[in-house]
Input
Amino acid sequence: MALSRRLVTLLAGLAGAALTFTLKALETPLMAAEAAAQVEPPEPFVQLDLFQSVVLGAVQGLTEFLPISSTAHLKVVPVLLGWGDPGVAFSAVIQLGSIVAVIWYFWRDLTQVTTGAIRAIARSDYQANDFQIGLGIVLGTLPIVFFGLLIKVFIPDFDNSPLRSLVAIALASIGMSLLLGLAERLGKRKRNFEGLRTLDGVWMGLAQALALIPGVSRSGSTLTAGLFFGLERAAAARFSFLLGIPAITLAGLVQLKDALEVGFGEAGIVPIIAGVISAAIFSYAAIAWLLRYLQTQNTWIFVWYRLAFGVGILGAIAAGVLENT
Output
């Protein structure tokens, strides 16, 4: 899609205006939501020992970037192990490890896209690949920010809503497995990373917003969208990771601010640090493995895993092994 100076200016202006209008329109509801939230005490940290924190850090790291949903696994795995739900506070803090890992892994890509986009703007070369990717990331981040703000305003207790129940997570996992399977079947996979366009960022950004629903998987929804729009598997995954950096970072910092208000409890900070380090190590390994894997393999292993995971949760609830919390 050819981008002229006028079109680029228009897109940037519309994006800025949309974000400004959204923040202005939600200013009063946001203040009301924050005031209401102050009435309820913040969710405390669940007391986990060093071993449990390391294990859950590994779960976070392995599932954040594989298309299988970290939210779902951080809720289900500790419950199955008899540790209980670690809660949003713990999950938010150890997510910092995943943020560090993805920025570390893609530092060269981020530097290249940033500097390349700046040079392209200076030359008015709006067809440059780096500019197209950079603009796609910016525009693709707006949907999840917009809908995230809406959820914060209109569903202030979203973390305890039915959408975070095990049944909802199971249904989301099953639904996304079917969509990924359909994308694997129908996707043309003819475009590589150099063939990315700004519009790819917009469409994948809209898909990323679906990840606000627990169990959908941010990487899963964006990878699925990329395949539907003709990207090669590895290219779709690589851009999915780059697109997710702003969203993951913003979400992690916002949740971290809320979580730290309650302190670290009797267990202290050491298990939390261990969980963050574990998440960083396993996140880095998961990113590297997935990009190599998708260069030669398809995504059916994730389709069948997500389907089995969802069906397994529903079966466990029906058998009384798990409670629909």
